[in-house]
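Q: Entry one of two.
A:
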Amino acid sequence: MLRDAAPWLVAELEKECSRKGVESGIRVEVVRPDGERETHFSVILSAWAEGCVLVLNDITHKVKAEQQLTRERNQSALYLDVVGAMVVALDASGAVTMANQTTCRTLGYGVHELIGRNWVEAVVPEEQRDEVLDYLYLVFSGQTESADEFFYYVTTKDGEDRLVQWQHKLLTNEGDMPIGALCSGMDVTEQRASEEALAEKELWLRSTFVALGEAVLILTPEWKIIDANPAAEIIFGMTNEELVDTPAETLHVDAVHNAEFKVRCRAAFDERKRVMFEFPMRRQSGAVFPSEQSVSLIIGDDGHPLGIVNTIRDISSRKRAERVLRESEEKFRRIFESIEEGYIVTDLGGRIQMVNPATCRLFGYPREELVGRTMDELYLYRKEQLFLHKALAGGDPVRGLKIQVVRKDGAVITVDGNAHVVTDDNGDPVGMEGTFRDITRQIEAEKVLMEREQQYRAFFENNHAIMILTDPKTGNVVDANPAAGDFYGYSQEAMRSMNMSQINAQDEEEIFREMDMARAEKRAYFILQHKLADSSIRDVEVYSGPIMVQGRQLLYSVIHDVTNRIRLESEMKTLATTDALTGVDNRHQFFSKGSQELRRALRYKKPLTLLMLDIDYFKSINDTYGHQAGDEVLRQLAQASSSLLRESDIFGRLGGEEFAVVLPETGLRLGMEVAERLRKRLSEVRVDFEGKKITFTVSIGATLARRSDKAIEDVIKRADEALYKAKRMGRNRVDRA
């Protein structure tokens, strides 16, 4: 009967019975054809001594569902393989359960090389693994939103690091328990590189704008100031806040000048040219100054004007110099006519072409009798003339040559002459020129000079300036005036028995270093430290030069006490580099030192960690206790932080309640420990203010310098992101980036 009713079933059962036997029972799935449809059955056949039992279950719906699920999975796999994003599925342990073709292409792995491997250990660079594990923990614990983005690097099979922007979605089972995560990522390596390059270019342009020595104003097409560099603030005596949003006409002398300025600029703009001209401007104080203007139009891609760049150079000094030059030319003419030194120009044969009045007076000839005369008519000795010509033929100027010449009245005088060859634009000699002075009386005076040593002694003894004569070979003090004895606290007799090594408070190496520095800076003085009789140390400025005393060459030194000036200069330097409120490095000094340390770390491949600190809810402290209390909190923070840091660490205030620390030769792990000690120590600070005890906490962001960092600003930016993360995660904590 069964064979008649269901021949399709009997045929399948006979096939299974012949293969397995019926004693242990048979389970089989069979398909009954129903025209265009098929019906699927699950068949169970059990036998015993008296017969057998046949059970049929219709499983068509189940089979259709499984087929549909298989098709959907195939479609999903096909979609994931053609989608542009990297898609990775992780199980609860972080092992890869699925990776699409984009992932495999990006990383250079085959699917079989990724499936089953721990994702973080397989592709995340070691320095970022802890950070990624922390974030995956937040994903698996449901503490993130699926729309949250997270950036981290993955390492390809070839060892290349690629920056990927990831989004993660938690996968749960029917009991809402986490069973894994679906990770979708976009490779943004090139995009980030472009953004960083653009940011670096913007930073460079801004730095150039700020650092320019010339004043620069950025104006709207309606001539309204929208930005000004520091040089503009200085030249106009106004702050950036005062300049911005101010009409440019307020900087001109008056409305007439302003109208003329715009007419000149617009005429150039119409021809698409940059205009340059001189124009008077007005400072905030009302003072008018001459300026050199450069004005150009900023044109957008659509051809419409976006703004105006106005560069302004204060040419007051140049105008003064031009006036001085004109006055100098006139002065030179007057000097030429009035100086007591003679001045002569001759051709190469020695024929006089030009003389000044002093030459006429010295030789006793009128000008018309000297011009055209040869110089050999004036020399007493021919050999002196030949010596001068031979010396000039060598190409070098002749200085201090003593020659005897004959005046018109026959008197012989001795002159001290300087001469050199005159050349044309091509360097070819065309003549000679020289100056000379009558030293006849000077020679006679030198004979008398030895008799006037007592006058020198009176000058030396009575001068209020500190004067010392020393032997340059031994350093022994040969003589010292009373002013020196009063300054150093010794008698003159005692000083004459001393050596300069007893006065110098510095060793020879330090003194030679100062001498080299003075030579490099072309200074005529040395800045040294001298020790007085009472053992006090004074900073002195020493002017020294050789002097002949009774045929003996000595070193003559004039000494000025500059202790107070040096102290004031040191104080001014401290004010320029130190935050006035907290006493730590100010922003400029921190960036300068930090940049040096970053360059050193990168050059010698040493680790460097940077921390960013920010007081939590600092505004509420100011609002509750007042700004003076807030200032005291900042001072206490700086003091407590400085006491915990090393001398080699760099600690500075960047602004407001934001501080930063550079930890040289410190890895991220040790840097995090330092940050945690700082956070704990600062949470224990109690600030006493007007009978109240104020407490506060800080959030800290830490980051490790990377070889890809181009400037200290790159490191600070990452640390700032970590600081923001610490704020976002609840404050009073340390996070890293």
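Q: Entry two of two.
A:
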Amino acid sequence: MDFILLKVFVFTLAACLIIDGVYVAAAPDIQLVSGLARGYDKQASETGKPYSVYYGIPFAEPPVGELRFAPPRPYTSRGAGSVITSNRFRPSCYQFPAPPALMSKDCLHLNIFSPPDASPARLKKVMVWIHGGGFMNGAAEPYIPSRMVTDRDVMIVTIQYRLAAFGFLSSGDDAQSGNMGVKDQLLALRWVKDNIRQFGGFPDDVTIFGESAGSASVSALSLTPRAKGLFTKAILQSGTILSSWAMAYDPKQTFYQYAKKADCLPLIYNPWNTLGYHQSALNCLKAKTAKELVDAHSKYDLEALVFDKGFWEQAAFGLVVDNDFLPRNPAELMKDKSYLQQHGVLERSYLMGITDNESILTVLGVRKESYGNITSASNMAPLIQSIVRGKLSMPVDSDGLNVVDFIYTFPRDSDGRIPLQKFLDLQTDDSFTVPLVLFARALVEAAPATPVYMYLFDSEPKLKDPNGPIRGTNHGMDLLHEFDGIPEESLKFLYFYADRDPVKFPIITNAFRGYVTDFAKTGNPSPGVPNDWPRYDRQREQYLVISSQPEVRERIFAQRVSL
């Protein structure tokens, strides 16, 4: 009787472990130098295929006390037997606006999503995801890559980094050099390099990818001298370090404004000792509670601060030239072939693109009847001047401004207002299209053999209002075709007067996941059929339109880019 029961138990157990013809072992505990990483068995959305996940692995010490606003320090062991992971996503980093989910000072963690058969004997290609959020907000939790892991057989790591003032405050000198958030990312990549093999990931062929501010971070990590050897491929989705919103070229102004609102700006300014002045303000900020620092963000209007310099000219909190992570202005570094060669920038492969109507995001939340308020000629004139100022280092005469004005504001509506799509085109080109093309051109001009692939993403949303003024794929819609954890409220937010097409959506999803994971595994987004997606070069500047019927075209938004 006992033998029969044992046979039934073994048969049942075996049946549970055989899924799609693959034997699946439980997620093993991994003993690291810093402690024990405990994994959990999960199932992919829709398919139920198994995978393993390790939640909340600390890669840095909590940035508290003297480590607040300081470069991250590698996490040290609390004892070999200590379990250092969690059974769920850990809280996000402190940010503004504050999300409804939990936030924590102890937030520098990463998560590993692994195929069930990954092991040191069966290494998988690794992709490290860097979330977006304008350097102001975001977290790892919304991005669940179960289908990429199970269907495409890659290992994916999602990381968290410090945000807003916690990660990107800079006084413009040694008191607070800035870039702490991307230095967190850098330390996470170092952790992956040193530890991922034990989980079954290949440490010598890592792809980093991100969207929006995460994409700008990817390009910054590609350009910094400190990341050489940490990754081999980069995927940029809707953002580069050349995007106007990515860099804070006058961080001292934000530092003063923020310190003042946090009641930390010293009353007496000594022009002969600005370093000491900044250090006093920083010491005060370090003594504040996390809540007080979050609240200080809301005491002044960040957008108004940036409008003082021109909304599209720089970020409030963003990347800075710190003579360390970024030794010089990124545009200068991109033109310096010897620098690019010396620091391995040209040794990597790049996949980069944008959506076909990125700047729909700028009118989210604006009622249709209010569109006219933002498209008047009086509003467009200063916007155009701001954009031209931000892109050119020389004054532009009235004739030059008139050319830009003519291309982007005519023909006008019968009431004299600018067509809304023209308004969106201007911001898309300034913030996304032109920086992308400049980044790609710089790479292939420095080394024509550098593998660069460019795309335009068109998810073909199904319009709720066919007569509405806004069409196309919004900023962030590509995320819905990669990850399966995007909350429903985000779907409604991103789709904005549109729905997902029930027929085209899964076709595009399958294609896009294939492109990014094939690129990570082979360096080519369409391996075996190179003519389907030719490399980007300066002669033809070819790119792929990713849609339900992909096609290769030349010179993305050519007229607008040329202008």
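A: Comment on entry two: The two ends are 84 Å apart (CA to CA). The chain is about 35% helix and 15% strand.
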